[in-house]
Write a structure and sequence with these properties.
With 124 residues, the protein is mostly helical. The protein has four helices and no strands.
């Protein structure tokens, strides 16, 4: 392989790398343009931002109402489980209550051994 062939191979490789870099750059520019188009469509005025905030607040209130409704239904589900008389739900509820009670119980006081004062006096 002579020097002319080496320069040709080097030039071909360089052109390929430049072409790939340009293609990648163009793809990223198109992605950036698309994202900027999305941001440009948004209304950044004070009334527009107020409208967006109001929408977010209303969605948060709806989620809160849904959560409260679900929480209110939980005791009913527990009573339904108890009323059905099924053994498995009763056992799982009892087991859960026992675990909760165990966590809430305070530890029983331990008995302390009496210390012989004569031995303590000798040790010091």
């Amino acid at each position: 392989m002579n020097i002319q062939e080496r320069f040709g191979a080097f030039e071909a490789e360089a052109k390929g790398r430049i072409r790939r870099a340009l293609n990648t750059g163009n793809e990223k520019l198109m992605e950036l343009d698309k994202e900027l188009g999305k941001v440009a469509k948004d209304d950044w005025t004070v009334p527009g931002m107020r409208r967006h905030i109001d929408q977010i607040v209303s969605r948060a209130q709806e989620l809160r109402a849904t959560a409260v409704k679900r929480i209110e239904e939980i005791p009913g589900e527990a009573v339904t489980g108890l009323a059905t008389g099924a053994r498995a739900p009763l056992q799982s509820i009892a087991k859960g209550l026992a675990e909760m009670a165990k966590k809430l119980e305070t530890a029983a006081p331990r008995a302390v051994k009496a210390v012989d004062e004569a031995k303590v006096a000798k040790a010091s």
